[in-house]
Amino acid sequence: MMQNVHLAPETDEDDLYSGYNDYNPTYDTEELENDTAFQQAVRTSHGRRPPDGVTRPMTAVRAAGFTKGALRGSAFDPLGQSWGPAPPLEARNEDSPEEKIRQLEKKVNELVEESCIANSCGDLKLALEKAKDAGRKERVLVRQREQVTRPENINLDLTYSVLFNLASQYSANEMYAEALNTYQVIVKNKMFSNAGRLKVNMGNIYLKQRNYSKAIKFYRMALDQIPSVHKEMRIKIMQNIGVTFIKTGQYSDAISSFEHIMSMAPNLKAGFNLILSYFAIGDREKMKKSFQKLIAVPLEIDEDDKYISPSDDPHTNLVIEAIKNDHLRQMERERKAMAEKYIMTAAKLIAPVIEISFAVGYDWCVEVVKASQYVELANDLEINKAITYLRQKDFNQAVETLKMFEKKDSRVKSAAATNLSFLYYLENEFAQASSYADLAVNSDRYNPSALTNKGNTVFANGDYEKAAEFYKEALRNDCSCTEALYNIGLTYKKLNRLDEALDCFLKLHAILRNSAQVLYQIANVYELMEDPSQAMEWLMQLISVVPTDSRALSKLGGLYDSEGDKSQAFQYYYESYRYFPSNIEVIEWLGAYYIDTQFCEKAIQYFERASLIQPTQVKWQLMVASCFRRSGNYQKALDTYKDIHRKFPENVECLRFLVRLCTDIGLKEVQEYATKLKRLEKMKEIREQHIKSGRDSSGCPRGRRDGSAGSDSGQNCSTGSKGERLSAQLRALPGTDEPYESSSNKEPDAFYVDPLGPQIERPKTAAKKRMEEDDFADEELGDDLLPE
């Protein structure tokens, strides 16, 4: 309904009419609602609107919230809040084919992502399982799509990603045949755009399989399908082709590829491989030119001056501090380190061949490097020149080359002095080594190698506490200095601080998992701590790393022997003997083991080998003869004793065996041997008298009846062994060819001691029983012939 208004002409205040005047210039608005004609006109006017209740199209007025309800007294509600809450959303029908397809597609994408994540975490087996599961579900998805929609609506991108991921996981798990088949499925499908690029991956697989001809074929097919606008990708493929040619020995073709790369887009890898190719064909001039090309490759990194603040502005300093070690800066450092590595390796490779001598070649490389952006590498090349002198055993030239750096800057001086200290230490010139170690430390206090060398010189002088301090300082400067960590462990062992030594070696083991030296030191520390079980466990780990180490095997055998496990001890001692059959301790243990188990005939071979290793030691030959006798071969035993007597005519034990054996067997030589034994017995008495008088005057204990020096307390007047002293004293006495007539009437002492010890009771033959009834070979082993 329209609002009522009063219309009046402009007039003066005096001309206004009163509201109570009967004059009405227009309409009587109070009766408009009851005026039928007016209401009909209102309803049918203005666009001929239809009567109330008839629907009409929404207009801007209605959309803004102006409705008839508002005109009838309702509040203004442009947002329609007075209409109440919106009706609930229509429930999704999960059983519909479209919804099932969406859920299955989502599951396939999740499996592909999980496969990639597992691969990045190193779990290749799980990554392959996820990739296979994604492939199975993707095939189900394709079949369902074909039933619901047209074939054009199939998600090709999802199919491509599933197949590509599956091929990648096959390749990562070294299942190359399956990977190639999967790549073939992708490449042969014309619906996949740019799938031909995957032939590069197929070429890589053939390269891993060493099928170089097929690798080159697929690389070239991929190169043909990549447009020239993708310059970087084409360069990488050509680099792969060049590397494959090197592996096949086709150096000329490889040179063509790398020369093209260096002319189009030079890079470090291509330049280094070009030098390798020319080195293989022996072209000196081309090697020089290629080295110059390698040096000229731009690094495209910022200079170090960029990270130095030019002012004291705190904001600028904060920004520089933030970017000084960010990821970009780290990448620049890695690129520079890689370039220096390639250049150093190339220089060491070509220097010995590009000139008459390697020294001249190194000098040429140094001059080229000095004129390039790698000026700092020139000094490193000079140090490598000195190291090359060392490899050629030319120590004087090495020392002279290194001494040239004494007037250089501190970093180079420290490196040269460190090498000089190392050289003098190897030559046991500890004073010179210490001097150059001091020079290295003073030039660069943070050089861990210099500090380690200084600690070594102090260690050699026996000052273990001070050596440990130098090693600790080296570790503070570089916690990855394994040399210092190993040496400080040895120092703690010397100081008997076994717990700290064990801690050092265990830390080192965490860094060097398969270091045989570290494993042995851990086992040795546990042995010193009297923990044989742990020592044996670590020695087992050591043997798994170096299974042919005879020392470790014998050590493990000794531990089992100390624990009473003879069978395990025999196994490891025998393995040690098999790998190194010249270890006297192992040979002696094996011989004693067979004697203890009453297999004397098997012990003979070990004692014979011992006699070959130590031919001047009579005890091994006496043991061989005793083994023959115990095994029942008396004739062989007699021949062996005679042979021993020819080699050692003054050996009393051998003569006693001969006298008794000849007597028991009934040979005529018994009188000859008895005369010799009687003469030696007389010499023995004279010797004992001399020893007794000499000891009485010097305060040494009296000698025993058998003439061996020393006493039970271990006090000896001579540093030689008992057997050696006995032989020396016998040789010092005057010899005679005539039988010696004793002043006494006693018979010669034919009593002897079995070198193998008392014989254990076992079934006997009649001859053996008769011999044993005569007290044959039933005495304990003398000290001089006991196994050590």
Automatic annotation (TrEMBL):
Q: Where are the TPR repeats?
A: 196-229, 235-268, 448-481, 482-515, 516-549, 550-583, 584-617
The record's section on InterPro entries has: TPR-like_helical_dom_sf, TPR_rpt
Which stretches does UniProt call biased (Basic and acidic residues)? 761-772
Q: Where is this region: Disordered?
A: 1-28, 77-97, 690-788
Q: Does the keyword Repeat apply?
A: yes
Instruction: Say yes or no: keyword Ligase present.
Output: no
Can you list the GO cellular component terms from the UniProt entry?
A: centriole; centrosome; ciliary basal body; ciliary base; ciliary tip; cytosol; intraciliary transport particle B; motile cilium
Q: Write out the GO biological process terms.
A: inner ear receptor cell stereocilium organization; intraciliary transport; kidney development; non-motile cilium assembly; regulation of cilium assembly
Cellular localisation: Cell projection, Cilium, Flagellum; Cytoplasm, Cytoskeleton, Cilium basal body; Cytoplasm, Cytoskeleton, Microtubule organizing center, Centrosome, Centriole
Instruction: Please name the GO terms that the record assigns under molecular function.
Output: kinesin binding
Renumbered to this chain, the Acidic residues biased-composition regions fall at: 773-788
Q: Which SMART domains does the entry link to? A: TPR
Assigned keywords, A-Z: Cell projection, Cilium, Cilium biogenesis/degradation, Cytoplasm, Cytoskeleton, Flagellum, Repeat, TPR repeat
Cited function = Positively regulates primary cilium biogenesis. Also involved in autophagy since it is required for trafficking of ATG16L and the expansion of the autophagic compartment.
Q: Which PANTHER family match?
A: INTRAFLAGELLAR TRANSPORT PROTEIN 88 HOMOLOG (PTHR44117)
Its assembly, as annotated, is:
Component of the IFT complex B, at least composed of IFT20, IFT22, IFT25, IFT27, IFT46, IFT52, TRAF3IP1/IFT54, IFT57, IFT74, IFT80, IFT81, and IFT88. Interacts with IFT20, IFT22, IFT25, IFT27, IFT52, TRAF3IP1, IFT74, IFT80 and IFT81. Interacts with IFT172. Interacts with IFT57. Interacts with IFT46. Interacts with IFT70B. Interacts with C2CD3. Interacts with ENTR1 (via N-terminus). Interacts with LRRC56. Interacts with DZIP1. Interacts with CCDC38. Interacts with CCDC146. Interacts with CFAP53.
Record-given protein name: Intraflagellar transport protein 88 homolog
Native organism is: Bison bison bison (North American plains bison)
